[in-house]
């Protein structure tokens, strides 16, 4: 090298070394450390294995804003996370037009969810939302839901648990509930009876696809997964292979569905798209219906099973809550002269009378929301109610898991499982959807909220009325982040008929 080259390298190296060796670290208003050049990346990597716990700690300490900013200069878009209900209302309602999913978020999930309702914006989202809203508000659909839930519990779920009782085996309740939710949504949405066909290949491929897509969001360096996708290597290669199985299942449902059966949701969507002559987005194609299938399976299988498995975990360590639910079941049976019923399946009106159970399920969803974090993209510059400045293109997320553990929202007992917080004189009182975000809020609020409660309450009533259960591992389950919040190693449980006195593991 000549003298000029050495001078040039020195000119570049000196400021870089100065930044790398700089002792003083910048801090944003949440107290999160921002290092020179690498920004908040070191803290993120250090805590990636406990991301929700770490996020909750930071947001809780960031008073009064309850907002944190993650930033890795050059290689990552600014990520703003908040647990402030005022910010959530601003993002999801007041200024929701400025916070669509955005192109990059859409691209991250498109391999899996396609252009379905959970992964679309603009006219495509409005079209699907309008169509789904019309269907979910029909009484006939509610009756169809009740009919299917009753059948699936009596003829699918109960026999599995009866067999486990007879053999004295330990079941993974997470797996059992996922299978139940899958059978349920397949019958409701597509009029497909999965029967004894385990469909293990599909289940495995679906779960693997969901986890790889989730990992894209958890990777702070965007170009890494995009490069792997371009080269078709590693997890991105596995995603393509898994999606072939998932797509084959979806297209098989579409091509073999009963054309004259109009009760299931897929047929209703197909009829609506065929009758929409003004739709210029080719929504009446098999690709559109494929996206409908995958989005419904995600909503019906993942969220309901996640909500239920965390509920039964919390209930196992809160026997007083279980006793109150059993008393409520007994009270409603007596009220409706149903003491001798062996089915333990309540109708819609009886389920609505169960205020305490509704409160207990809501309390579980507060602490363990299936959709633990939700991310939008800022379409333009903005300032949130807590004063946080948002630049165009920034990712803006609210963390439902953290919100459920925020003292300023729920009080000093925010980490306790306490159904009574939802009751006023014994009657369930809903909270603002901007502080209880389990079902989202604003224009994108979950249309299946009532359906979810119907399914969860029906399962809980029947299971608790007929069975006692003991969780094999008393340690709190590890969080497993996928499309929804799952338990890392499942929930091993042993069941016994309730009339039997002793239960041993």
From TrEMBL:
InterPro entries assigned: Cyt_P450, Cyt_P450_CS, Cyt_P450_E_grp-I, Cyt_P450_sf
UniProt keyword Membrane, yes or no: yes
SUPFAM superfamilies documented for this protein: Cytochrome P450
Any Pfam family the entry gives: p450
Assigned keywords, A-Z: Heme, Iron, Membrane, Metal-binding, Monooxygenase, Oxidoreductase, Transmembrane, Transmembrane helix
Alphabetized GO MF terms: heme binding; iron ion binding; monooxygenase activity; oxidoreductase activity, acting on paired donors, with incorporation or reduction of molecular oxygen
GO biological process, one term: lipid metabolic process
PROSITE patterns on file: CYTOCHROME_P450
Gene3D superfamilies xrefs: Cytochrome P450
Chain sites annotated for binding heme: 446
PANTHER family the record matches: CYTOCHROME P450
Protein name listed in UniProt: Cytochrome P450
Organism annotation: Zostera marina
């Amino acid at each position: 090298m000549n003298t000029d080259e050495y001078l040039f390298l020195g000119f570049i190296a000196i400021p870089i070394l100065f930044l790398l060796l700089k002792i003083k670290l910048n801090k944003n208003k949440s107290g999160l450390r921002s290092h020179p050049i690498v920004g908040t990346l070191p803290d993120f990597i250090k805590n990636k294995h406990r991301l929700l716990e770490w996020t909750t700690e930071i947001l809780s300490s960031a008073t009064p804003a309850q907002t944190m900013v993650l930033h890795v200069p050059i290689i990552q878009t600014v990520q703003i996370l908040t647990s402030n209900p005022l910010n959530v209302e601003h993002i999801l309602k007041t200024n929701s037009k400025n916070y669509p999913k955005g192109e990059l978020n859409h691209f991250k999930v498109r391999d899996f969810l396609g252009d379905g309702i959970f992964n679309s914006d603009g006219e495509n989202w409005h079209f699907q939302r309008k169509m789904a809203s019309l269907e979910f508000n029909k009484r006939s659909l509610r009756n169809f839901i009740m009919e299917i839930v009753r059948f699936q519990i009596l003829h699918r779920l109960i026999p599995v648990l009866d067999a486990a009782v007879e053999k004295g085996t330990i079941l993974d309740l997470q797996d059992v509930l996922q299978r139940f939710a899958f059978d349920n949504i397949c019958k409701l949405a597509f009029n497909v009876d999965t029967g004894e066909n385990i469909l293990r290949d599909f289940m495995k491929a679906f779960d693997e696809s969901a986890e790889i897509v989730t990992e894209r969001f958890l990777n702070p360096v965007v170009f890494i997964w995009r490069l792997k996708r371009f080269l078709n290597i590693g997890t991105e290669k596995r995603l393509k292979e898994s999606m072939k199985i998932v797509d084959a299942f979806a297209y098989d449902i579409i091509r073999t569905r009963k054309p004259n059966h109009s009760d299931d949701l897929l047929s209703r969507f197909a009829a609506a798209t065929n009758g929409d002559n003004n739709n210029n987005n080719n929504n009446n194609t098999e690709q559109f219906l494929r996206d409908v299938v995958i989005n419904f399976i995600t909503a019906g299988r993942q969220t309901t099973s996640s909500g239920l498995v965390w509920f039964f975990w919390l209930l196992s360590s809160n026997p007083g809550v279980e006793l109150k639910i059993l008393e409520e079941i007994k009270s409603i049976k007596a009220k409706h002269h149903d003491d001798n019923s062996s089915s333990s399946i309540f109708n819609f009106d009886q389920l609505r009378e169960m205020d305490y159970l509704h409160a207990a399920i809501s309390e579980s969803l507060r602490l363990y929301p299936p959709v633990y974090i939700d991310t939008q993209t800022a379409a333009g510059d903005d300032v949130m109610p807590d004063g946080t400045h948002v630049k165009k293109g920034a990712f803006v997320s609210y963390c439902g898991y953290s919100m459920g553990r925020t003292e300023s929202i729920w009080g000093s007992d925010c980490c306790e499982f306490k159904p009574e917080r939802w009751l006023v004189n014994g009657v369930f009182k809903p909270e603002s959807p901007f502080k209880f975000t389990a079902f989202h809020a604003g224009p994108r609020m979950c249309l299946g909220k009532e359906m979810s409660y119907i399914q969860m309450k029906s399962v809980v009533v029947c299971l608790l009325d007929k069975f006692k259960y003991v969780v094999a591992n008393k340690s709190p389950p590890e969080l497993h982040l996928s499309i929804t919040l799952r338990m890392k190693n499942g929930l091993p449980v042993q069941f016994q008929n309730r009339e039997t006195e002793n239960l041993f593991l």
